[in-house]
């Protein structure tokens, strides 16, 4: 895909004329950290072949580096900032809130920082939620607990006019919106409404999706912790399965449309024998179906561990058209479906099994962030503050090629990130599980149908 299809230009509220209170250096070699300039970029696409020739980049093709600028847009003494956490719980929410508050307060001297309670609904008048006045003393130990000190909720982001009204009435100068794909789409609509009103308010997104499915971003916070906790559940499932006669451990993990948690967990644990993800279809019955291969595994090794992402195999279930408050289609429960199908199948062939089903999803979502995530959250929050103070808006802070960058919300939410069934991540998952490449009976017919449907390409790393 050509890089020129995306415009990575970052919008600003106006020229930066105020000297930053952060004292850094403009030269190299003096052992003082340097300011970042608006002329520092990284390229998005690093893959190439010997047949491709390098050509000069246009501004819209490169990613703007994040970090503190020498000149800023807002006078810190006049700033009223707000933070809101939206969507489901995710490890690291409190870490990000803590980082934003401490950077605003300690580095820029901002003294008015409001916490919006319970997501976008905290900005809607009928809910009547009071603001939380945030200070370093209040947030200093918040990273030691899971959940969100601000509370969270799904939905409300489509009530753009009312949210913009609330932001305007609060006299906010900047708002930090922590959430996933749906949340950031709402944030962009709010930012556009604010712009139509001629208001100078920075809207900065911080990517929170435990599924790790936001495009162009190396990873979203909470993902590493989720893999750690998921691996613990897989280890428990393996121990149960290994200790029983024909034991089966079935673990359902998060992953509505993208199977990153399931794949990373399988590679990390090396105790899963089957990984089922939304990107790779499978059939239950037949000589190359999942149930046949599960039976074969039990006859050879007398135990098996299955990891399934929540969005896998939805074509096998009767899911309705209902959506949740965030606008996501409600999924049928693939975990319970597989549990029942497995038990029915082995009963029909007269083979004794002992199946243990584990769904650790909410335990994972509410966990305290692992150190690797705490570090990432701290740096995301800091860079979000630097961007807002510089008057940048309609952007998300992301990690790309191990560099923190500014990404337009419109680009990040234009498509989802998926595990590429033909990429190296899935290849390594197959190596870790030794499962069949494709559990489909009529592969030729399936491939012909898939090509006609023009499937979404993957972006795994």
In short:
The chain is 33% helix and 16% strand.
Structural class category: alpha/beta
* Number of spatially distinct domains: 2
The CATH architecture category of the largest domain equals 3-Layer(aba) Sandwich
* Total number of strands: 17
Assembly state here? single chain
> What is the percentage of strand-forming residues?
15-25%
Q: CATH fold name of the largest domain, please?
A: Rossmann fold
> Averaging pLDDT over every residue, what do you get?
92
Could you say which overall geometry the principal axes of the C-alpha atoms support?
Answer: elongated
Task: Strand order, main sheet: write it out.
Answer: 3-4-17-16-10-9-6-7-8
Query: What is the CATH domain class of the largest domain?
Result: Alpha Beta
First-residue to last-residue Cα separation: 15 Å
Figure out the total of helices: 13
Description:
By secondary structure, the protein is of the alpha/beta class. It folds into two domains: 41-221 and 369-412, Rossmann fold (3-Layer(aba) Sandwich); 223-364 and 420-453, Phosphofructokinase domain (Rossmann fold, 3-Layer(aba) Sandwich), CATH 3.40.50. The protein has helices spanning 93-107, 136-139, 160-169, 181-196, 223-242, 260-269, 290-301, 334-348, 361-365, 371-389, 409-412, 424-433, 443-453; strands spanning 11-12, 18-19, 41-43, 62-65, 71-72, 80-85, 112-116, 132-133, 174-179, 202-207, 247-253, 274-276, 303-309, 354-358, 392-393, 395-400, 403-408. The strands form four sheets. It has a nine-stranded mixed β-sheet, sandwiched between helices. Helix 4 (181-196) links the parallel strand 9 and strand 10 (202-207). Helix 1 (93-107) crosses helix 10 (371-389), helix 3 (160-169) crosses helix 4 (181-196) and helix 5 (223-242) packs across helix 6 (260-269). The longest helix has 20 residues, at 223-242. It is elongated. The relative contact order is 0.16. The mean pLDDT is 92.
């Amino acid at each position: 895909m050509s890089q020129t299809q995306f415009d990575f230009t970052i919008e600003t509220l106006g020229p930066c004329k105020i000297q930053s209170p952060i004292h850094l250096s403009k030269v190299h070699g003096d052992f003082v950290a340097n300011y970042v300039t608006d002329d520092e970029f990284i390229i998005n696409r690093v893959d190439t072949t010997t047949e491709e020739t390098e050509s000069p980049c246009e501004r819209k093709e490169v990613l703007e580096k994040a970090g503190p600028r020498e000149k800023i847009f807002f006078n810190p003494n006049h700033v009223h900032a707000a933070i809101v956490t939206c969507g489901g719980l995710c490890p690291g929410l409190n870490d990000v809130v803590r980082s934003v508050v401490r950077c605003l307060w300690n580095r820029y001297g901002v003294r008015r920082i409001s916490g919006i309670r319970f997501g976008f609904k905290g900005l809607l008048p009928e809910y009547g939620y009071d603001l939380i006045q945030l200070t370093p003393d209040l947030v200093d130990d918040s990273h030691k607990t899971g959940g969100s000190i601000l509370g969270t909720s799904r939905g409300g982001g489509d009530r753009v006019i009312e949210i913009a009204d609330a932001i305007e009435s609060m006299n906010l100068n900047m708002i930090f919106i922590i959430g996933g794909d749906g949340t950031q789409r709402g944030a962009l609509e709010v930012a556009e409404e604010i712009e139509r009103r001629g208001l100078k308010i920075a809207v900065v997104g911080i990517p929170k999706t435990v599924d790790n499915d936001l495009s162009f971003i190396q990873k979203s916070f909470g993902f590493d912790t989720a893999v750690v906790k998921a691996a613990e559940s897989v280890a428990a499932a393996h121990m149960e399965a290994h200790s029983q006669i024909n034991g089966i451990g079935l673990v359902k993990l998060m992953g509505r449309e993208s199977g990153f948690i399931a794949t990373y967990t399988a590679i990390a644990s090396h105790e899963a024998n089957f990984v089922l993800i939304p990107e790779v279809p499978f059939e239950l019955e037949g000589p190359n179906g999942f149930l046949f291969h599960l039976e074969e595994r039990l006859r050879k090794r007398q135990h098996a561990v299955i990891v399934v992402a929540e969005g896998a195999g939805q074509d096998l279930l009767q899911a309705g058209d209902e959506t949740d408050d965030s606008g996501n289609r409600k999924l049928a429960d693939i975990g319970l479906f597989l549990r029942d199908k497995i038990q029915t199948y082995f009963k029909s062939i007269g083979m004794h099994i002992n199946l243990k089903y584990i769904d650790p999803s909410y335990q994972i979502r509410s966990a305290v962030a692992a150190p690797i995530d705490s570090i990432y959250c701290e740096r995301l929050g800091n860079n979000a503050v630097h961007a807002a103070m510089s008057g940048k808006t309609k952007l998300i802070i992301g990690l790309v090629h191990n560099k923190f960058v500014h990404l337009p919300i419109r680009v990040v939410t234009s498509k989802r990130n998926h595990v590429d069934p033909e990429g190296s991540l899935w290849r390594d998952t197959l190596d870790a599980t030794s499962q069949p490449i494709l559990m489909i009976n009529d592969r030729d017919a399936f491939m012909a149908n898939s090509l006609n449907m023009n499937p979404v390409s993957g972006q795994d790393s």
